[in-house]
C-alpha cells in the first residue's frame, strides 16, 4: 500500500507540501482572474451600451489575463494528474515497463515546461523594463512562474510515482470525486 505523505511530514517530502500549496494558490489566483476578466468584459459591454464606445485596452487586458489563467493553472493540473495520457495502455504494461513509460512522460512534460519557462524569461525581463505596459510583464512572469511550477510538479510526480508514495492531492481528489453524483 502506498504510504501517505501529509503536508506536515518533515524531511525530504517537504517540497511536496510546498508545491501542493503553491499549486493550490496559483489555481485560486487563476480563478480570481477569471472573475476579474468577467467584470472587465461586463464593464466593456455596459460602456458600449451606455456611451456607445468600448473601454480602451480591454482587448489587451483580456488577452494577457487568459494567458495568465492558463499558465497559473498548469501546475495544479499536473499535480492533479489532469494532463492528457493514455491510462489504458499503462494498465496493459507490466510494472517495470509502466515505470519506464511514466518516467519518460514525466521527463518530457518537465522538459516542455522548462523550455517554456526558459524561453519566456528574457521577454519577461525585457517587458518589465520596457514600455510594453503592466499587463504584458505580469503576463510574462505568470507564464514563467506557472511553467516552472508545472516543471517542478512533473519532477515531484516522477519521484512519488516511481517510489510508490502517494501524493497529498490524490486523497483530496478522491474525496471530491466521492461527492460527485
TrEMBL record:
Name one matching Pfam family: DctQ
Keyword Signal attached: no
Assigned keywords, A-Z? Cell inner membrane, Cell membrane, Membrane, Transmembrane, Transmembrane helix, Transport
Q: Residue limits of the Tripartite ATP-independent periplasmic transporters DctQ component domain? A: 38-155
* MF-aspect GO terms: transmembrane transporter activity
Q: Which residues cross the membrane?
A: 21-41, 61-79, 100-122, 134-160
Provide the leader sequence positions. none
Q: Name one GO cellular component term.
A: plasma membrane
Q: How does it assemble?
A: The complex comprises the extracytoplasmic solute receptor protein and the two transmembrane proteins.
Q: Which family does it belong to?
A: Belongs to the TRAP transporter small permease family.
Q: What is this protein called?
A: TRAP transporter small permease protein
Question: What's the source species for this entry?
Answer: Undibacter mobilis
Amino acid at each position: 500500500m502506498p504510504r501517505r505523505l501529509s503536508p506536515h511530514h518533515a524531511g525530504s517530502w517537504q517540497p511536496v507540501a510546498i508545491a501542493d500549496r503553491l499549486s493550490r494558490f496559483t489555481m485560486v489566483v487563476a480563478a480570481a482572474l477569471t472573475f476579474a476578466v468577467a467584470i472587465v468584459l461586463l464593464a466593456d459591454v455596459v460602456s458600449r451600451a451606455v456611451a456607445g464606445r468600448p473601454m480602451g485596452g480591454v482587448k489587451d487586458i483580456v488577452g494577457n489575463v487568459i494567458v495568465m489563467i492558463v499558465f497559473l493553472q498548469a501546475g495544479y493540473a499536473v499535480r492533479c494528474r489532469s494532463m492528457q495520457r493514455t491510462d489504458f495502455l499503462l494498465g496493459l504494461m507490466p510494472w517495470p515497463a509502466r515505470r519506464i513509460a511514466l518516467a519518460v512522460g514525466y521527463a518530457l512534460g518537465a522538459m516542455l515546461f522548462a523550455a517554456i519557462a526558459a524561453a519566456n524569461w528574457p521577454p519577461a525581463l525585457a517587458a518589465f523594463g520596457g514600455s510594453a505596459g503592466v499587463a504584458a510583464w505580469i503576463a510574462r512572469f505568470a507564464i514563467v512562474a506557472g511553467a516552472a511550477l508545472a516543471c517542478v510538479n512533473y519532477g515531484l510526480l516522477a519521484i512519488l510515482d516511481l517510489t510508490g508514495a502517494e501524493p497529498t492531492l490524490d486523497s483530496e481528489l478522491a474525496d471530491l470525486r466521492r461527492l460527485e453524483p
